Amino acid sequence: MIEADSGKVLEAENATMPWYPASVTKLMTAYVTLKAVKDGKITLDTLVTVSPVAASQSPSKMGFRPGTQVTVDNALKMMLVKSANDMAVVLAEGVGRSIDGFSEMMNQTAQKLGMTQTSYVNPNGLPADGQITSARDLAILARAIIKDLPEYEYFVHIPSIRFGRRITQNFNRLIGRYPGADGFKTGFICASGYNLVASATRDGHRLIAVVLGASSGTMRAVRAAQLLDRGFASNGLSWLKPSLGTVDKLVPIDASPPNLRDDMCGGKHKRPESDEDDAVAATTAGQSSSTSEAGATFFASGLQPPLAKPSDLLAAAPAPSEPIPVYTGPTRSGAALIAAVAADSDSQATPRHGKKPHGGAKKLAATAEPKEAKGDAKSDAKTAAKPAAVRHANAKPDAAAAKPTDKPTPADKPTADKPTADKPTPAKPKAAAKPKSGTGDAKPAPKSTSG
């Protein structure tokens, strides 16, 4: 955790451990794209086209057919809120001509910003050899977005978007729930675990928290909220803690990134196609450390009543907000915008009788961030006592901008994809009622997808 203005490090635990970024990669995709806008090379109204390569990306994605055009503005919103992998490629090809060309731009930008532990291979964070970062470098990138692109910063804290009939909430659960939350992005692949770059502002004081390798989507948000709570509670009393210097001065750890695929996705750990996982287990884990933290907050805040527990805040529904409409085609306003949104709504086939939606709309019903290739170190203090679980000789089991405290949540049980009896036979009710073995209990291991 760091101060956004000064870059001062407030807490750090394995902050320079190399890590797989997953979909927080899209923060650099947004930074490079918006810098091109700011420099006048393109505009937010510039049309970019969905290529066959973009359309072939794994979910989460919008699912548009090749040839579909969207504006840079709408592509950015879809990418950052829905974590759409196809929109990341659309932007990369629109700005850098190709994935490789854009990746080179991303790497050049990372070096200019001082992100010395980061390298990029693609614009969306899908698993790829050589795609590496660290909590330190992600904090540097978050500061750069705030400092260099203040006029476009609203892209990283949009609560929700509406495409046609479908509304997608931001996968960053702090947005709309945690007081003052105003950024940035989530990420998840099997190799990295659940990642989150977050920020919040209170009384003009902005903090940035980075959590990598959490055990669940809820836990990464709880961990980030706990960091931010401690940071705001100690505001004005930071002189009591020894100085950790500024984020750019943190010394990198020379190691390979740990791979948590076995822990996150192997064996019984069958994850749902979503970041919305076991909230009950995450809440329990969050409460285990929140009691002592509440006491510290009470003391540091001048004997003021402690704030609500992060787990309680995140369990609540987000604050009401009007979803921002996104649509295909050129920029429109007024009646033309209404017509464009209506056209996208009409193009979405509504599933009936168990049938899947038609065409490019078949993936749009997903409003939660699907699995990426899960597999990084877990932000968990107890995990530190069991390094064998990380399956890497040089790596500690957690990388974050603060000491981890969460416990891994139990794996969600898979649900059946189809009824056990597709064609019931009235003449033989006993035979029809007999379940077929393996129809709902044994699902294949989840695919590696980015969100």
Based on the model shown, name its key terms.
451 residues, alpha+beta, five-stranded antiparallel beta sheet, three-stranded mixed beta sheet, 12 helices, 31% helix
Q: Please report the distance between the alpha carbons of the first and last residues.
A: 23 Å
The geometry reads as: globular
**Count of separate DSSP helical elements:** 12
Give the class from helix and strand content and strand pairing: alpha+beta
Question: What is the number of beta strands?
Answer: 10
The whole-number mean of residue pLDDT values reads 77
What proportion strand?
A: 5-15%
Concise structural overview:
By secondary structure, the protein is of the alpha+beta class.
Task: Describe this structure as you would to a colleague.
The strands form 3 sheets. Strands 1, 6, 7, 8 and 10 form a 5-stranded antiparallel beta sheet that branches. The protein has a 3-stranded mixed beta sheet with strand order 5-4-9. A two-stranded antiparallel sheet has the order 2-3. It contains 12 helices and 10 strands. Strand 7 (193-202) and strand 8 (205-214) form a beta hairpin. It has helices at 25-38, 52-55, 72-81, 85-96, 99-113, 135-148, 217-233, 261-265, 279-300, 310-315, 334-347, 429-433; strands at 2-3, 47-49, 69-71, 160-163, 166-169, 181-189, 193-202, 205-214, 324-326, 399-400. It is globular, with a radius of gyration of 22 Å. Residues 272-306, 352-397 and 402-449 have low confidence and may be disordered. With 451 residues, it is α+β, with helices and mostly antiparallel strands.
